[in-house]
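We include this case.
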Amino acid sequence: MTGRNLKYGDITCGYAPWIAQQLNKVTSILYTAVVKGKVALPCDISPPSADDGVALILWYKDEAPSPIYTLDARQGTLEQARQSAVSTLDHRAYFNMINRPAFLQLDPVQEEDAGEYRCRVDFHKARTVNTVITLKVIVPPTEPVIYDDERRKVKGIIGPYNEGEKLKLLCESDGGMFLDGNNTTHEAVEIFI
């Protein structure tokens, strides 16, 4: 990839596309939450200079063109800012500006909350700052149910079984999603006594 010089009157500007590509890269932070739990997605809203302040905070999810959460301080101070969330987050999302870094709290977390979040902070004077967070959501499996080899539910003490006899039990649990994206499965286990 090569750069080139652009001339504007008496001013010559160098352009190097590989530098522009490096500037656009944003590191993603990985967060994990459990369904029905809560999570705080961080966003640094500290202005770069003392004479600047936050004008607008927009939260985006995945590739959605519209923000899922907005905090608008363009008409006043940050403390007077208007906050609004999309209906899917209604009453589950709260933007905490007291802590540093500030954070968007989701409570309770739902399975469909998994994805990539981007917090965009527009300042009155300084350039826009973006924070990208990838949220993985763990879905716990249901309570396991144990069956014997004739598909009868078993609980507590089972048996009696003779020594050396094969014991085959099946443990089943519905649902569940692990960090690696795999669903829970069930399998038969043979136990020898």
Remarks:
- The first strand starts at residue 4 and ends at 8.
